[in-house]
């Protein structure tokens, strides 16, 4: 089942929205592979993408938050760090034990949860705060 991009996921910061769309494309490719019983082959590629992606994307996002003096920057950073830790743990697990159905399910669930909860809730706060700052400026 593919997850379509919803306008509700847009936070209104072009660079960040583009990166979020990229993540969704990757998530859908991975889900598609899982549905075709090819999740195991695709998991390493997906984890590698995530490692590179999180470095670039979280860097961009944190830069924006610093620029606007976002009050919840520390909490947001913690969530980013937790996500990276989970990706690295999954990668270690795959290296040590190989891929299992459980790892593919875990990665799938983690990405879906991140997309739905983090982007549509936490990242939205950045845009809301930014707009509020513009309103008071």
TrEMBL record:
This chain's source organism reads: Paenibacillus haidiansis
Q: Which family does it belong to?
A: Belongs to the hemerythrin family.
The record's section on Pfam families has: Hemerythrin
Domain Hemerythrin-like per the UniProt entry, residue ranges: 12-127
Q: What name does the UniProt record give this protein?
A: Bacteriohemerythrin
Query: Which UniProt keywords are given for this protein, alphabetically ordered?
Result: Iron, Metal-binding
CDD domains according to UniProt: Hemerythrin
* Domain of life of the organism encoding this protein: Bacteria
**InterPro entries under this entry?**
Haemerythrin_Fe_BS, Hemerythrin, Hemerythrin-like, Hemerythrin-like_sf, Hemerythrin_metal-bd
Q: Please tell me whether the keyword S-adenosyl-L-methionine is annotated for this protein.
A: no
What SUPFAM superfamilies does the annotation carry? Hemerythrin-like
